[in-house]
From TrEMBL:
Residue ranges annotated for the ThuA-like domain, each copy included: 3-218
InterPro entries: Class_I_gatase-like, ThuA-like, Trehalose_catabolism_ThuA_prok
Protein name as annotated: Trehalose utilization protein ThuA
UniProt superkingdom: Bacteria
Length: 243
């Protein structure tokens, strides 16, 4: 069974009543609820726990880390970021949601600013499926309609993805690469744009299905981590030195 850790800052929900009304127990609890219902072995962690809840032991027992952050990116310790980065290179999957695009770990893995345009106007978003045969799009029709979402708009300063699965169109005219996959080292990464804290996006069944699919796609292949460095020859070498 795939072991999932859902990480959330858990700041908005405690500090703002309008957010608490949408996610009374925290975004992480809502995410974990449908991932658990899908048969995934799910736990949660939050920013204000010791080591942000992401100790060596927790990460070593995590196959896929799901990340939601927004107002406290800089409060995440570099030590924990380096710990996550190492685990991704070793094969742990990473699903980065919504404003997690500006998290330290996503920026470190992408090597760019990861910046974009944004607008919070409660506008409609239509997520078009660009790769209908991709496993992350399984069970989804031609598009997903969301009545309200925060606008994220191009240009999105990230490297060219391995796969561009969703493109979002917003009522105000902007478009955005809303669902993209990457590989870093042995780890799979899925970035998925919908999920502003003041809208009930994570209650949408199709959005839930995409995130479940994303976690399953990011799950690591069980194999040994490659060995690097000096290597002895596998076959006899006929030296030509001095000939």
């Amino acid at each position: 069974m795939t072991r999932v850790t859902v990480w959330n800052e858990y700041r908005h929900e405690r500090q703002e009543e309008r957010i608490r009304q949408v996610y009374p127990n925290g975004i992480h609890v809502q995410l974990a609820s449908f991932l658990s219902a899908a048969g995934l072995d799910t736990r949660t962690a939050t920013l204000d726990e010791p080591e942000h809840g992401l100790t060596e032991e927790v990460l070593n027992n995590t196959d896929v880390l799901v990340w939601w952050g927004h107002v406290a990116h800089q409060e995440v310790s570099d030590e924990v970021v380096n710990r996550i980065h190492k685990r991704v290179l070793e094969g742990m999957g990473l699903v980065v949601l919504h404003s997690g695009h500006m998290s330290k770990i996503f920026i470190k893995l992408m090597g760019t600013s990861c910046d974009l345009k944004w607008r919070e106007a409660g506008e409609k978003e239509r997520l078009w499926v660009m790769e209908p045969s991709h496993p992350i799009a399984a069970g989804i029709g031609e598009y997903i309609d969301l009545e309200q979402e925060e606008m994220y708009g191009a240009h999105f300063d990230v490297p060219a993805p391995e796969s561009l699965i969703f493109v979002g169109w917003f009522e105000g005219g902007n478009v955005f690469p809303s669902g993209s996959t990457y590989r870093r080292g042995s780890g799979n990464i899925f970035y998925f744009q919908p999920g502003h804290e003041s809208y009930p996006t994570y209650y949408n069944k199709e959005i839930q299905q995409v995130i479940i699919n994303g976690v399953n796609w990011c799950a690591p292949v069980k194999r040994d981590v490659p060995v690097y460095g000096h290597s002895e020859a596998l076959e006899p070498i006929r030296s030509t030195v001095g000939v």
